[in-house]
Design a protein that fits this description.
Order of helices and strands: HEEHHEHEEEEHEHE
Bound molecules: adenosine monophosphate
Distance between the termini: 17 Å
Helix content: 25-40%
Radius of gyration: 15 Å
Oligomer: single chain
Strand content: 25-35%
Largest sheet: 7 strands, mixed
Length: about 180
């Protein structure tokens, strides 16, 4: 992607200090969501390494990963699968507990959301410590689906999340801090 486009995207991300807890510098992506041409750039950049591949399902993580994931799924002609916080999905689920940058969490996916052999891309807004993505990846692996890779709008490099996730395929992030 052109460096001009990347710097437009980067400068639209708003830093919010001490949210949701003291010491966390929250990356607020709502100004990007609010701008249709920036969103177009973000989705273009996030799918770049996977364009031309057959993707059956895009798994997006609650809650901002739903926005990016659903748009990516539409663009790739794939279905969208939500990984949600515990207790939110109505049907039978498989779930996993994990720790994240600010607290602990638990995520779930419907047991019949993915079938063995499905070619899957994971999408989320931000890779921090890697706990959330790691848990979602485990749920994908447990379903017997094939993981093609992961794509993030933002990666916080200093947290080294990518070292912590057990992964096949590329881990792609568009904007790095
Ligand atoms: P982690 O499990 O630590 O990789 O955290 C990733 C998840 O938490 C993502 O779904 C993000 O939406 C959210 N998150 C973690 N840290 C931040 C941050 N500094 N700014 C915005 N979102 C964050």
């Amino acid at each position: 992607m052109l460096s001009d486009s990347l710097s437009h995207l980067r400068s639209a991300i708003r830093d919010v200090p001490d949210f949701p807890k003291p010491g966390i510098l929250f990356k607020d992506i709502t100004p990007v969501l609010a701008d249709s041409s920036l969103m177009q750039l973000a989705i273009d950049g996030m799918i770049e390494p996977f364009a031309g591949q057959q993707v059956d399902k895009v798994v997006g993580i609650d809650a901002r990963g739903f926005i990016f994931g659903a748009m990516i799924a539409q663009r790739l002609g794939a279905g969208f699968i939500p990984v949600r916080k515990k207790g939110k999905l109505p049907w039978k689920t498989r779930g996993l507990d994990y720790s994240l940058e600010y607290g602990t969490n638990s995520v779930e996916m419907h047991i019949d959301a993915l079938a063995p052999g499905d070619r899957v891309l994971l999408a989320d807004d931000l890779l921090a410590t890697g706990g959330t993505a790691g848990a979602a990846l485990k749920l994908i692996q447990d379903s017997g689906a094939t993981l093609l890779g992961s794509t993030f709008f933002i990666e916080l490099d200093f947290l080294e999340g990518r070292q912590k996730i057990d992964h096949t395929g590329p881990i792609h992030s568009l904007i790095n801090f």
